[in-house]
Specification:
Elements: H1 16-33, H2 39-54, E1 56-60, E2 76-79, E3 82-84, E4 94-98, E5 104-106, E6 118-128, E7 137-142, E8 151-157, E9 177-183, E10 192-193, E11 204-211, E12 215-220, E13 223-229, E14 241-243, E15 258-267, H3 273-279
Length: 281
């Protein structure tokens, strides 16, 4: 805690009338700054928080361990990532992935296949870009292949820059953007990609993908950057959930992630823009 030095004046003479004026002005100023909270506003805020909490199916805050804090026991069953400093600089509040062979694995569970709606959130810091086939970088992934049913993921790549033909080109290091998807296989998913913000190395980004049954949206730093109408089917798959890559059994497209992850949350509901904003604070 910072110490504040005392500045007591010596031998100062202040007229009594002036003292009264200063005190009154100060009192009025404090009253003006007060923002009373109505009972209705407090009830709405509580309901909003409960909605967020009750729809959480997996939460990895990474505060010194890889346990699931959602209450659904979706703990990480394998990890060779390295404990690291988080977004606030505190040690052991994040995990670092080397982009080569570091990953985490969560055993499949019915709660990990939400259904009609979903939100996938992560707080990430990128340190490099994958140069392998199609050069996708998966932050969170469920599904062996993109063509599987019940696929969802958060990732970043240069797909938008190459008009989604990145597999035919060399990796572009200056046009990497975040994106996400949800649905039954290639061509039947609600894709959402940030076409504006270019990813910078060693910068923390809170990113979120949502699908509400009618539209897919993507948020960066709490701001909506992409939205599109999409009605897609979703059937669950039996694949485990992976963090830091696509799937250990997908040797052609492992999509390794290089960087640090501070926090991951998965919900069985599409959070609102207001709720997404709360996650980034």
């Amino acid at each position: 805690m910072k110490k504040i030095a005392s500045t007591t004046a010596k031998h100062a003479f202040i007229p009594a009338t002036l003292t009264v004026i200063v005190l009154v002005a100060s009192s009025c100023q404090k009253q003006e700054l007060k923002q009373p909270v109505t009972a209705q506003a407090a009830t709405e805020a509580t309901a909003d928080e409960l909605s967020i909490q009750n729809n959480l199916v997996a939460w990895y805050p990474f505060n010194g361990n890889t346990k699931d804090s959602s209450g659904n026991a979706n703990d990480v069953i394998f990890s060779n990532a390295t404990p690291a400093a988080g977004a606030d600089g505190t040690e052991n509040t994040a995990y670092a992935f080397n982009g080569v062979d570091n990953y985490m694995r969560v055993k499949n569970n019915r709660t990990l296949s939400p259904g009609r709606e979903i939100t996938i959130y992560a707080l990430v810091n990128v340190s490099g870009f994958y140069h392998g086939s199609c050069h996708n970088n998966r932050i969170v992934n469920k599904g062996l292949n993109d063509a599987d049913e019940g696929v969802y993921y958060l990732q970043f790549n240069d797909a938008f820059f190459y008009d989604y033909n990145q597999c035919l080109n060399d990796v572009d290091l200056t046009h990497q953007t975040f994106g996400g998807t949800y649905g039954n296989g290639t061509g039947n998913t609600g894709d959402a990609i940030d076409s504006t913000n270019r990813i910078k190395i060693d910068k923390w980004y809170p990113v979120a993908y949502t699908y509400d049954g009618d539209s897919a949206k993507f948020y960066v730093n709490g701001a909506l950057v992409y939205a599109k109408q999409a009605v897609v089917p979703f059937n669950s798959n039996k694949s485990d959930l992976f963090i830091g890559m696509s799937n250990i059994d997908n040797t052609t497209y492992p999509d390794w992630f290089a960087g640090r992850i501070d926090d991951i949350k998965i919900y069985k509901k599409a959070l609102t823009a207001k709720q997404i904003k709360k996650l980034t604070k």
